[in-house]
Structures are given as structure tokens and as C-alpha cells.
Amino acid sequence: MSSTTETVDGAEVADPHREPQAINHHKDPKSHILLTLAAWLCGLLFALPVAWMILTSFHKEEDAATNPPSLFAPLSLDGYKAFFDAGPWPPLANSLTASVVSTILVLLLAFPAAYALSIRPVRKWTDVLFFFLSTKMLPIVAGILPIYLFAQKVNLLDNIWLLIILYTSMNLPIAVWMLRSFLAEVPVEMLEAAQVDGASLMTTLRKVIAPVVMPGIAAAALICFIFSWNELLLARVLTGTVAGTAPVFLTGFVTSQGLFLAKVCAASFVVSLPVLAAGFAAQDKLVQGLSMGAVK
Amino acid sequence: MPPTGSPLEPTNPTATRHTRHRRRKARVLAVAGAAALSVGLTGCAGWGGGSVGGGGANSIDVLMVNNPQMVDLQQLTAKHFTAETGIRVNFTVLPENDVRDKISQEFSSQAGQYDVATLSNFEIPIYAKAKWIAPMDDYIAQDTAFDQDDILKPMTTSLSSEGKIYGQPFYGESSFLMYRKDVLEAKGVTMPEKPTWQEVAEIAAQVDGAEPGMKGICLRGQPGWGQLFAPLTTVVNTFGGTWFEEDWTPKVNAPEFTEAVQFYVDLVRKHGENGAPQAGFTECLNNLVQGNVAMWYDATSAAGSLEADDSPTKGKFGYAPAPVVKTDSSGWLYAWSWSIQQASGKKDNAWKFISWASSKEYEELVGEELGWTRVPAGKRASTYENPQYLEVAKAFAEPTRAAIEAADPTNPGLQPRPAIGIQFVDIPEFPDLGTQVSQDVSSAIAGQTTVKEALDKGQELAEDVAERYQKRSQG
């Protein structure tokens, strides 16, 4: 979850109003050092549980469960062996399908929507924007029973496409809001220049606007991917043997009889790898967005 | 920031034509996309459970709790059951609380997604009354190799409703007292053959601190009807207490109930494990294996872990029957069991799977391939006659069998009961009631409240439950 929070913060930092402040700090070396220290401290604080998880995943079950913790117990790959023996590939493939497809769908839908809310706003665009946000106000758990019964009626229980549809609609409002704030900063002059050169709407969107707001698109895509990848509640209730996702599979290692910490840590580490990979892949795009703002 | 709009309408004719062309292209793309999506929707539902959809007609879906015995079963199914019968078994494995949620959601809506699920003897009579699970009597009659008579009597009783059998045990357990023989011996204490709770409390005081950091006894203090109140209800029973009398009069703050809880709380506060208010089965197992406690009153199935080959305390344990006060025996009865969903369309295959998983042959298979300590025991009389099993389990096999045989789920205390069950009252309202009361008793163990306060509150909750249950069953 920590990576999620950071990315959200990152999107906020992209707000150009904050930039002058940051520059001021750079000028004062003392506060610069202090800030760096604080940043490292926060970073370590966030990394510590993850490091602990990775260390535990390489211990034997008996060593993982001791109190006080045995830091220097001999390392072992038993946890990973148990994880890979349990057949993790179908759930991982399901998670990947649900996350990637829903993220693509979200971007395809959110990009035109954001355009219609910023560059060429529709009538009452603020109302529209808040309507989008209002769909996030109902807690998912309040809707879970109707969704379950609906899925049962239309025969979509345990079907990955149901999750794709739900994840798309779950992430769409966030993506629209994020992309709108990026699109709103595209200078009118650029669009007019494109128009003068005879570019159609699609060409303008693809060749003029998209490259400028790439950091925004990358940030939105990453957020959507992470949210879908980590989603547990819907997946646990609506899937079964066929469409079960990685988080559901992960919880399956918890048992009320016997030890399971090392196994769960190993499984958690493997399951969080794709998110880390996605974060790294999007990193240079994001950093570009942070350092430049949406537009120079 | 307000959006900065500007008129961008194409004005020259070439651009208009261009746009129209683009629009047509976009529409074609959209139609193609929708078509691809609908093909996907009907074609591939996910990557698990076989090729297409739910794995085809010759397969079943099983929802089960993640206990070590089930993980073993998962390993052996493809290699043996599927190879022999051609029936593919798709498993969903979840932790205990999650699996209970999912099963009640699945079975109450009769979604038919799963053919078989692991239910316990708590759920089976309730689900049977609701007609969510299918009776097995016809299958049992035809399948003579299954040998129903070999299943221990108390198991069959607790998995039946109105004379029909609705579940088959996978492994069963009662409760008994586990203790470190070497520690008791060093202190010159002998465990009576049939200890009373008062004797156990004395021994706990004597062995407390026998080794550095060692406490006298581990007793569950973690809130939860299935955690704290599993052992505690058996203590209440043998002290002469009960949750309800036969006519549903609640007796939670009656003298016997209070005396039992006070005894339990005092014992665990004086000579119990560290962190008792949070200790459940797993924590106590750890405490015993690591030598932090000398005794433990809990499930008989724990003995398999204590005597496992990699256990550092293997061979050091003695086993005594569940301590008593006013009753002859006080052990509980619990069995993770297989049930068939009423809405399942593959009941024949489901029975074939159950008949295999609960069979004598499966126990032998586990013994030979994975080791005899891992056999899902506690359900068949024949297990306790098997020389190979007895060889590795000699320390606890007979105490386990005796504890299960002595358990009487219909009459576990001094007074007649309104519902079946030893460590629980078999009504849907009990988990909520038990869990709420257990939270206050756990606070009493932590010293934040008194037993009297906890039970007075519990009595009010129980009165409410009795009223609701009676109203529901009459109406």
C-alpha cells in the first residue's frame, strides 16, 4: 500500500503551485540537509516492514514464529517452494488480465472524458465531475450483496470479465479526475496551432495532447493498475476456482492450525513484485511529470 | 483551475470529410471491440480450473479451509483420485473465517458454484434444516466400500439431522490435556489418570517456573466463539453450567457458569501463558513447542504437531483426558467434514470424491506417501487398529480415540439441552453471542473487567438471542 500512497502524493506534488516552495528549500543548505534526512527516515520507515517481510520469507516456519524474533536464523527457500508448489500461475495470470485489461479500458474511456471536462468542457462540467466523484462515495462493501446476486443471475460469478468491468468502473472516476487536472494545463496555443495545421480531433488527441500529458497518463495508469492488482474484497466474494486473483490466493496461506508466517511472507513478496515492476517502468515518466509539472 | 476552452470546430470542407472518415473508422473499431469483448466473455472466464469455464462436466469444485490436512489432500488428489476416476477437482482454499463467510454466502444463495465444501459439525445440522446441503444416505447405502459403520458414532450423530446423514468427517477431534512429562517428573508431580480441574490448577501452580520463563498452563484467551469459548464451554459444562436450559432459559450469569469462568480466568491469570488475552490455538501450540508452558488443554489434533518429526519436543508429552468436575467426561467434539451443496448438478461425482477423501484407503495413502503423523485421523475406528499408525501415534492415539468416543454431543452436561453441541449451542445466533461474550471474558483475563460484569452483560445478550430464536422457529 505504501507505493500507492506515494504515487498519490506524487500526483499532488505535480501541482505547480508547490514548486516555488521547493526551490526556496534548495537555497538553504541547512534545511536541505534536514529535509534529506527526514526523507531518508520516512523512506526507511516505509521500507522496514517490507524488508522484514522479505527476511521472514527466507526463514523456516519455526524460526519465523518465534518471540522474540530470530533475526539471524538460517535462511531457507521452503516458503517459496510451498508457494510455487501450490500452483500460483492461474491466479497470477488472472490478476494480470484483470489489471491490464481494466487499466487499458479505463484509459480509453477516461482520456476522452477528461478532454470533455477540461479542454472543451461540456455544459455543467463541474456537476459532471462531481457526479463521477460521487460514484466513489458508496463503500464497495455496501454494494457487494446486490453485485453478487446480479452476477449470479447473469451467470458471471467466477468470471474474470466481471472483475474487469468492476475494476474499470471502480477506477474510472479517479482516472478522469487525474487526467482532467493534467489536461487542463495544456496551453490553448498548442491546440490552436494544431488546428491551424489542419489536425483532426483524433490527431490532436493522439499527437499533440497525449505526449504533453504523458506523465499524467502514466500516473493514472499506475494507480489503476495498483488498485486493481491489490483489490481483495470483490475478488474474494465474486470469484471461485476459475477466476480467483492473486490476493485471494495469497490469503489462502493463512491457516488456523499450524504455522504459516514464512509462507505468507514469501507469497506476499512474489505477489507484490509485478506492482514494483510497474512502478519502476512508470518511474521515469512520473519523475518527468514531477520535475516539470504537466507543462513547461 | 477553470478549463480553457476554445472553438476548435473544423471549418474547411476537407477537414470535415476527414473527420467523417475518422468517425466511421472509430465506429468500426468500436463494433469490433465489442464483438471481441463478448467473445471473451463467453469464451474464457479465467485461467484457473481447467481449460474453459468451470473445467467441464467431469470435474467438481471444492471450497475448503486451509488446514494442513487439506493441503496434503490437494497434493494427493490429482495424482490418485483424478488418475483413477478421471474426475478433475478444482480447489479454492481459504483461511477459516474467510471460508465460513464464503460458504454461508454461497450456500444461502444456492449459487451452485461449488459442489462440495468443508463444513463443521456446527454448521451441518443448521444447513441441513435449511435444505442447503444434500442428504447422503442413498450414496452410503450403495457405496458399501465406504463402510459408514467404521465412522465413530459421536461423529455420525453430530453430522446428522432428523435421522439423515448430511456430512462425512475428514478429520475429527476432541479435547484433552497435554503436558510435559519431563517437567512434571522433575518437580515430582504425577498426573492423575483422570484429572479434575482443581488438580490441574494445583499442578499448574507447582510447575509454574519449573524452567526459566516457563508458565504452568496454556489456555486460550483470544476472543471468538471458536477460540476462547471452545475450551471454556467444556469447562462450564463440567462445572454444571450451561448457556441455555432445555426451554431456552439463559443461564449465563447463573452460579455454575460464573464459577467455571471465574476458575478459568483465575487459573490463566495466575499460571497461564504470557499474552493470554490474545492467545489462540496457534499461539498455545507455539508456546508448548518452544517450552514456554508445561501444560495445554486443547484439541486432540494438536498432538500430531507436537509429535511431528521436526518438533523439538517430540516424545516429551503425556496426554490425559479433558479435566472434569461434576461430569464423567468433558472433551469437545469437532470435525471438519464434507458436504454436498443442494444446488450442485454433479452430486454423483461429489460423492465419489467424498467417499475417497474420507476413506480408509486415503488414510493409508497419506501414511505411506507423507508419513503416518499426517493422517487425517479421529474419524474411523479402523485408524486406531492400524499398526502402522499406532506405531508413530502410540502416545496420543488411544487418548484421542477415547476422548472422541466419550464425547456426547446431545447430552454434554448435567441438564438436558435445547440444541446439539458440546462446546457450542447449535443455532445460527451462537457465533455472534459467543464472540461478544468472549470479548468481555478476554477483557477479564486482561484484568480490565470482572467476570461478573462480563457475564451479566452476556446474560442480557443471551436473553435477546433466546427470544429471537424462539420467535424465528415458531414463525
TrEMBL record, chain A:
Q: Which domain of life is it from?
A: Bacteria
Q: Which InterPro entries match?
A: BP-dep_ABC_trans_perm (IPR050901), MetI-like (IPR000515), MetI-like_sf (IPR035906)
**PROSITE patterns with a match to the protein in the record:** ABC_TM1
- Asked if 4Fe-4S is a keyword of the record, the answer is no
What is the name attached to this protein's record?
Mannitol ABC transporter permease
Q: What segment(s) does the record annotate as region Disordered?
A: 1-24
Instruction: Give the record's keywords alphabetically.
Output: Cell membrane, Membrane, Transmembrane, Transmembrane helix, Transport
**Domain ABC transmembrane type-1 per the UniProt entry, residue ranges:** 92-282
| Pfam families, per the entry | BPD_transp_1 (PF00528)
Task: Report the GO terms under cellular component.
Answer: plasma membrane
Q: Which GO terms describe its biological process?
A: transmembrane transport
**Which first-to-last residue range defines the signal peptide?**
none
Entry similarity comment: Belongs to the binding-protein-dependent transport system permease family.
Topology term for the membrane: Multi-pass membrane protein
Q: Where in the cell does this protein reside?
A: Cell membrane
The residues that cross the membrane are 33-55, 96-117, 129-148, 160-179, 208-228, 234-253, 260-282
Subcellular location, principal: membrane
